[in-house]
Every structure is written in C-alpha cells, then in structure tokens.
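Posting here for the record, re: NDP.
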Amino acid sequence: MDQMTKKYVDGFMADLMGRNPGEKEFHQAVREVLESVAPYIMEHPYLLDQKILERIVEPERIIIFRVPWADDEGEIHVNRGYRVQCSSAIGPYKGGIRFHPSVNLSIMKFLAFEQTFKNSLTTLPMGAAKGGSDFNPKGKSDNEVMRFCQSFMTELHRHIGADTDVPAGDIGVGGREIGYMFGQYKRLRDEFTGVLTGKGLAWGGSPLRPEATGYGTCYFASAMLSTRGDSFSGKTVAISGSGNVAQFAAQKALQLGAKVVTMSDSNGYIYDPDGIDEEKLEYIMQLKNIFRGRIREYAEKYPSATYYPEERPWSVKCDIALPCATQNELDGNQARTLVANGCICVAEGANMPCTPEAIEVFQQAKLLYSPGKASNAGGVATSGLEMTQNSMRLKWTREEVDGHLKRIMTDIHEACVKYGTEKDGYVNYVKGANIAGFIKVAEAMMSQGLV
Ligand code: NDP
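Prediction output follows.
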C-alpha cells in the first residue's frame, strides 16, 4: 500500500472509531474491507468525491427496541432487539437474525456491514441488514421461545416486508424460531408473504435452504482446491460448531469423500480419529436439533472419541479446516498450529471466525483461505432463491436449487480470482471478495444519486 493510500486508510479508521467508539467487531470488519478496497478507490477518485465508503459504513437505519416477555413461571424478562438496515443499494434489505447473549450493537453492525458485500457477491438483487437480540434460547421451553419470538416480531413487523427487508436465521435462530416469527407477522399484518426466509417446506420454504450455507462452504472450498488440482477426496477435515452450518458442512464433506474428525460447541470439542460418519452425524443432528443437548454427549456415546472441554479444535492435525461456529474463534497461534500441522485450506463457514492475525498467518503461508463473505454466501443466496420462488408462487426441486447454489458458488469463486489474484499467482480471496462485492454496490449507489 503506498503512502497516500495508507494515509487515507488511517484517517478513515480514526474517524470511524471516533464516531463509533467501543464497537471493536465493527472496526475489525471495516478495516478488513477498507484495506482491500482503498487502492481501488484511490484509482477511481470519483468514489472518493462521492464518499461512497463513508456512506456504506453509516447504516441507512438502525432500530433498537424493547422485547418484554414472560417465562413459564410468569416472571417477566426484558431483552433488547436490533435491526441494522445497512444498504438497500441493490435490493431489499436482507440478512439473518441472531439470538445469543453476546449480541450487541457492534456485532449487529459488523454483521450487517459484511452482509453488504456478501449479498452483492451472490449475483442476486439483495441489500443488506442484520438483526437479533441478547435473548438466550438455551434452556428455554418451546413456549418461552414462542412468546419471545412473538414479542420480538410485534415490534419488528413495522420495519420489514417482502419488498422492504427480509430476515432469515443465524445463531440461535433456526426453523422453530422462524416459524414462530412468521406466524406472528402473518397475524399482525394479515398477509402471507415471503417476509422471512428459512421457512418450513410446507409453508413457503425452499428445498435445501437448511443445507445451503454448509454445502456452499464445501462447494467454495472445492473450487479453491481445484485451482491446485486437488479435492476433498481422502482429506481429513476439522470443523468447529455443531449447529446448522457445521452440520451440513460435515455432511457435504463426507459426501465429497473426506473424513471429518472434529465438531464443537461453546463448551468444548470432540475429536473422533475414526471419523464422524453419516450415522454419527445423524446422532449429532438429533442431539443438537431435537434434544438440544451438548457435544460432550457424543464422546459418551462413541468411545472412539475424546471430549476436550473449554478448547477449540484447531490443534488437531487436518488438511482442511472449516470454522463454522462464531466470530474470532480462530486466533494467530491456532492458525500457526494449523499451518505447522500441514493444513492446506481454510474456508470460513461462520462470519469472521478468523482473527486478522490468523488471516495474515494463512496468507503468508500461501494457504487457500476464504473469508466468510465469499464461502458462506450460499446461505443467503439460497434465501434469495426462496424469495424468487415465493414471488413466483412456485417451488423448485432440490436438484434445481442445488444446481443454482453450485453455479452461484462457482461464480463467487471466479469473481474472487478475478479481483484477488496477485502478481505471484496467489489468490488473495479477501481482497477479491471485498473488491468484487464493493464495485457492484458502489456503482448502484452512483446511479441512484445522493440518497
Ligand atoms: P447455530 O446456532 O445453528 O450454531 C452455532 C454453533 O456455534 C453452535 O454449535 C454453538 O454452540 C457454536 N457457538 C456459538 N457461539 C459460540 C461461541 N461464542 N464460542 C464457541 N462456539 C459457539 O448457528 P449457525 O450454524 O446458523 O451459525 C454459525 C455461524 O455461521 C455464525 O457465524 C453465523 O453468522 C454464520 N452464518 C450462518 C448462516 C446460516 O444460514 N445459518 C449463513 C451465513 C453465515 P452452542 O450450541 O454451545 O451455542
């Protein structure tokens, strides 16, 4: 980066941090994008004059609201709800809802900001938003979760709509929560529209939506591996998380001929050197989705596995690592261990799971490394396909949706290669994804004037 560009980056970040104090995840996400796109912006001074990036980092609208609800004993609780509507430049706002005690404004803003570039990369007409609450669904009864979702939607419904803002799931929000929120929206608005994605198959959902983020992550990793004449076949894969993204990343990795040896939750990870096969994965899916149990129970059922409490799976020897749990779950030291252990490919299923230091380690070692905004975009892309089916009042087959998903992931990979290939031939997927995502949004903003 030349001196002038560096000065621009430093000045931009100083201003951003002054205007948004204490929002460390938001600062981290903006810095990563800024460092990639700043040279492009300097080469196109009209983007500077039009303050395109200054506009993108200021969400179009932020809604923060009270969510009161009563538990099964009648005790009253108050949580905080959020919707950050970041960009409507290329389509209606679109992005998931997260229910987790760690949710705060910084995390909502980082996710909405990342979503802007991710949704642009999908090639579909979707703007960007993110929402959620510091509500913790863990240990709550179905009735408590339903009452919370209804209270959350009682406020949120005013701000969303099939052509305005279309939320989906994320951490702590799966099919059950989407169902309760959709039911309340329908009741309040008296309309059956595609206002949420991730719906049940019988009431407007798309085939393959639950699988899409995990499958798409593996499709993207396959495309990266193929640039080196390699594939998943015969590889050992370490996965973090055991939720929606992790489960289907594991399933697709198995289908592609790999051996999956780890999965985790927020309490620890399991290592099964014999491999988590289809049958064992089915056990994990039931454990997590139906019984809402903990990953340590896997090691109690399968003696081939060991449970490591309070640890993450990155010390395990593997060829491919798929972080699929949460932000900043893989740091610089863990990245060095992965590299030392011979890992060749890291594809992010989660949003921003690798710290900036970890990314630097991977890039210096010339590993195949992809940021979540590229490799996990299959989830929101399939949400976009769900919106299309809802508008057409049609349902495609699983095969049709899978075909679209594969094509979209290949297109995203090509865009990253186009904008991210460096002089020595190494593909910097971070740079590629950020520039490709940025150009489309910037051009749309230029066309639409100062709004
Ligand atoms: P789920 O709630 O289904 O699963 C999350 C998993 O991550 C669980 O195993 C959870 O463990 C674990 N986890 C959550 N917080 C932490 C933490 N602080 N430390 C360690 N482990 C943690 O969420 P998803 O699978 O949907 O989402 C996972 C990631 O993928 C997130 O970053 C999300 O933003 C991203 N993503 C999801 C998409 C989707 O379609 N669902 C689309 C694109 C990105 P525990 O059970 O203990 O909480």
